[in-house]
Amino acid sequence: MGNIFYFYSSMISDYSIYDDSKLTSLLIERDNRAFSEIYSRYWPILYKHAFRMLKEENESEDVVQEVFTKLWHKAPSLQADISIGAYLYISTRNAILNFFSKNKVHHAYLEDLGHFLEQAHEITDHRIRERILSKLIEAEIEKLPPRMREVFELKRNQNLSYREIAGVMNISELTVKTQMNKAISTLRNKFGNHLPLFLMSL
């Protein structure tokens, strides 16, 4: 990673004692050491996520570098109360989607999907019920408290571990587990045995 970030990541400071909120406030003021600490704190988990999606080391590094480059340039316009972990995670996800779009990696998938839809002339009642149930479940997920919903979505959509979610959201693993259990319990109480097995086993 011999690049402009080497200087930042090699700086020695006691900024590791600061929480994300303090680091974000300093970052907004263009504090290099705050940026260095955020970079060191979040690079591993963001790279791991990018590599999981892209399967290529160099491309994954490029995506994460782009995220941090944009973070530095946009720092003065950030809101002081944002969750920097969630902000970086979402930025990485968007960068990955942009990579797929630019490189047309998903072209074959879309083509296969199109062929499938052309052949699917009949939709059974069972599939209609599944579609309705899916929409109802999504509506209930949207009603979950913000933090609980964010934990649930990171687990369901990105398959992150409790430790990874804790790192992204800057909360404890116990809090992540508690929020997940509450989310599943809420959905189970609402839908009972109709709740898909993969959701109940998250």
From TrEMBL:
Q: Which parts of the sequence belong to the RNA polymerase sigma-70 region domain? A: 38-104
Q: Where is the signal peptide?
A: none
Asked if the Swiss-Prot or TrEMBL record annotates the protein with the keyword Electron transport, the reply is no
Protein's UniProt keywords contain Transcription regulation:
yes
CDD domains with a match to the protein in the record: Sigma70_r4
One GO-annotated biological process of the protein: DNA-templated transcription initiation
Gene Ontology MF annotations: DNA binding; sigma factor activity
Q: Which family does it belong to?
A: Belongs to the sigma-70 factor family. ECF subfamily.
Q: What is this protein called?
A: RNA polymerase sigma-70 factor
Biological source species: Pedobacter roseus
